[in-house]
Amino acid sequence: MKKIILLAAVLITTVSFGQGSPDYGGGMKFNLNPEGTKYMRFITWNQIWMRSSELNPGTMIGEERATKQEDIGARRLRLLAYAQISPRYMIVTHIGINNQTFTNGGASGSAGTGGYGAGKKPGLFFHDAWNEYALVLPKENKPFSLSVGAGLHYYMGLSRMTMSSTLNYLAIDAPIFNWPLIENSDQFARQMGIFAKGKYNKFEYRFSLNKPFVTNNTPVDVTTQDAAVAVDNSNNTKWSKTGYVEYQIFDKESNFLPYKVGSYLGTKKMFNIGAGFYTAPSATKTSVNGVIEKHAINLFSADAFLDMPVGKKEKKMAVTAYSVLYDYDFGPNYVRNLGIMNVGVNDATFTGTRGLAGAGNLQPTIGTGTIWYTQAGFLLPNKNEKPKVRVQPFGAYTYKKFDAFEKASNQFDIGTNLFLDGHHAKITAQYSTRPVYTAVDNIDKYLGEFIVQLQIYL
User: Of 423, 450, 420, nearest to 45 (Cα)?
Assistant: First the structure.
């Protein structure tokens, strides 16, 4: 595995430069009438991760202690289909699996050895399923458009990256805290509800009213208010409200689907400024001396996105940058520890100093407090028309200051995209750091994770 990862990294730094692919057009599109006004389109993609990870203290994999791990897994395997039944009416369906490793991510109840052993046969589920109707169709001579829809949807407001496409990230993936409700009161970043979207001149807007999925975590009872820790517990959940408004200074983006592009590779001139919110009453609880108190979830963000060509036109260079500030309030001292495709479990016999987050690659990811995330990348010059290969180095910085910790964390990502055929076929290598808190006022060290991703989409 180490040789495979090193080989992929070498390829990324040595392959000659080239051009991305415009060859796919509408992709797998099938007309439903001779005029082509009614049609169905399919989009399919997969992302395979190869990793070398430093693990948190006190980690076991299976029944063996581990401080490092190399593995391969399926980050995403997806199929999206949408049908334009008329110029005004559209149906969207999106299914897939996520995060299958050699130890977990399999079907519900899979464990041990055998046909349904640990990590095997993951459950296919719906990510999106909604119907949409255009009340006011977009037209060149009219500045205003409006569509409404309902179902399990991705119009979750808050920030650009909260509604990001997973097909065209600048970095290897989203930082996860952009989906602050992930798999608690949402279904893989989606909720069921009604939404409205549209444009007015250079403004784009998205709003939704949703019924969050129920949560029922039990708060730990404490004796003082300062020690109270909020947990997700909504029971008869109240309606959530969310929205995002963006001003598009240069080129206008399509809002046909909700998925925001991460990197246009210089094919557009984009500079957008946006702000959003999410609020849900009585969504978390604390317990002090047996007295239960309910708390609202109130989340806010402001962000800016830049993607444009630079330099001589024939060189096809481009710069991409994104910065977002999140202000999160889930209730007192709320923290969620998450790790993508975490294969580690706690070693009950470990006698050293454990990290507060737990085993494997867990880290404090989401919480009441402030998060600032910034990323930037540069598409290197294209020296030849062929082969169609481009290189895009990038870096990212994350600042997290959660109320539960006295000390803030500073995290870095650095990597490179190797575009074999634009975003349709690319290899991405990234090294990331994460903090290991051993006390609320102490970060003992930062550990690293090196990932190579293979992506294909049609």
Answer: 423
Q: CA 359, 361, 364 angle in degrees (round to 5)? A: 90
Residue for token digits 């009604």? Answer: 194
- Residue 69 CA, chain-centre distance (Å), reads 23
Q: Where are the beta strands (DSSP E) in 101-143?
A: 125-136
> How far is residue 98's CA from residue 117's CA, in Å, rounded to a whole number?
17
Could you tell me how far CA 457 lies from the centroid of its own chain? 17
Percentage of residues in the chain having pLDDT higher than 90: 89
Give the tokens for residue 124.
């296919």
| Tokens linked to 16 | 């000659």
With beta carbons less than 8 A apart as the criterion, state whether 98 and 75 touch.
Answer: yes
Instruction: For residue 226, report the phi and psi dihedrals to the nearest 5 degrees.
Output: -65, -30
Give burial (CB, 10 Å; 0-12/13-18/19+) of 160: buried
**Kind plus residue range of the DSSP H or E element containing 371:** strand 369-379
Condensed to tens digits (0 to 9), the pLDDT of residues 70-80 reads: 999 999 999 99
Q: Which domains occur in the chain, in start order?
A: 2-457 (2.40.160.10)
Contact status, residue 175 vs residue 189, Cβ threshold 8 Å: no
Closest CA to 390 of 358, 371, 368, 416: 416
Name the band, by pLDDT with cuts 50, 70 and 90, for residue 388. confident
Mean pLDDT of 211-224: 98
Burial of 456 (0-12, 13-18, 19+ CB in 10 A): middle
Q: Kindly give the pairing relationship between strand 335-338 and strand 125-136.
A: unpaired
